[in-house]
Amino acid sequence: MSFRFTVPALIAAVVVACIAVPALTQESGSEAVAGAGDAIRGRDLSYTCYGCHGIANYKNVYPTYSVPKLEGQHPEYLFAALQGYRDGERGHATMHAQASSMSDQDMRDIAAFLAGKVIEPRTGGAGVGTAPGAAATCVACHGTDGISVMEIYPTLAGQHEDYLARALHEYKSGARKNAIMAGFVAQLSEQDIAELADYYARQRPSLSTAKHANWFKAH
User: Fold this and answer.
1) Can you give the residue ranges of every domain in the chain?
2) What is the pLDDT of residues 39-50, one digit of tens each?
C-alpha cells in the first residue's frame, strides 16, 4: 500500500473536522442534523424505497453495485443523505428524482422508519480482522469497528463491499461533494479503496436490509 501523506497529521485534521463540521452546520442554519421523525408516517412513505432497499443483495442497474443496507443506520445520517440527493451533492438520477418530491419532514419520517433499531457504538469496540493502514483516518468519524461515533456520520459496519468502494470512488471523482471526504480520498490508491471496503464490510454488528422488508410482505 502506498501512502502519500503523514498519517498522524491527517488523523489530527480529521478529528478536528469531525468535531467542527456539525457545529458549523448548525450555526449556519442548515437542517443537516435531523430532528425526531415519525417512524409510523415514514413507514407509509417508504413503500417505494423497498423496491430497491428492501431486497437483499439488490443491485443498482448501471453502474452495477449493491444497493446499500439502511437498517441500523443513524436516521440523522439518512436524512442528510436524502438532502444530498435532493440538492445535487450526491449524483444519482433515481435518488434525486425520489428525494426531489420529499419535504424535509418526509425525509425525517422516512429516515426514522428505515433506520429501525440503530447500531449503537460499543465502548472499546475492536474491529474484525486487521485494519488496513488507511483506516487510521476513518476511526475519528466511523469508529474502530465501523460504527459511527456521531449520528451525522454513517455507520459502515457490514455494508456491502462494492457499495463502500463505489462511495469512495464517487467522493474521489466529485460525484459526491464533501470537503472532508474529498481531501481524504484524494490520497487513496485503488488498493487502499479495495482494502478499506473489504475491511468495513466484514465488521460486526452489521447493517441490514431484511427485517423491515418483512413488514411489507405481511401487510
Assistant:
1) 7-12+36-218
2) 999 999 998 998
